[in-house]
Amino acid sequence: MAENKEGQEITEEQTTENTENLAEDTATTGAETNEVEDIQAKLEGQLAEAKDKYLRLYAEFENFRRRTAKEKIETIQNASEGLIKELIPVIDDFERANKSFETVTEVEPLKEGIALIFNKLQKTLAAKGLKPMEAKDQTFDVELHECITQFAAGDDKKGKVIDEVEKGYFLNDKVIRYAKVVVGN
After folding, report:
1. Comparing 5 with 160, which gets the higher pLDDT?
2. What is d(CA 140, CA 151) in angstroms, rounded to the nearest whole number?
3. Does the pLDDT value for residue 43 go beyond 80?
4. Strands, DSSP E only, in the chain?
């Protein structure tokens, strides 16, 4: 007879029983090991598939980002193309006016020609959304005007624009150039 750790005697039947239990546990452990390996292989496959999807999605996003950046640059470069095409006839008119300065001796036809060209230019720019700002005799507004100097004025002109040094402009109701003005003090 053998003794266990606590000093108790172990019979032959108990030894056989323990050996049988150990054999069953080993068989169960082997089956569980195969099951764990199958689950691990399945998870590794899913991980590889997810990684592949991620890499493809990332590459697709990078291509999208590059393409949109390129389109944005092209849009910015060609944004003024329509305006320039409409201004070319005005430039042609100015070239013809310059040639006529050499041959014309009277001033009145030149004034009329320049006035026509100026009106054509204003109409072209107005069609594109450019609108001049009316500032003279208006109340001074820092959102629209830039005060370059102040002059003493009567009570009726105090805080109002007395003179407009440089005209301001709106482009589609957005201020693109502030009017430079003289304000009454």
Report:
1. 160
2. 13
3. yes
4. 2-3, 9-10, 130-132, 145-151, 161-166, 169-171, 174-177, 179-184
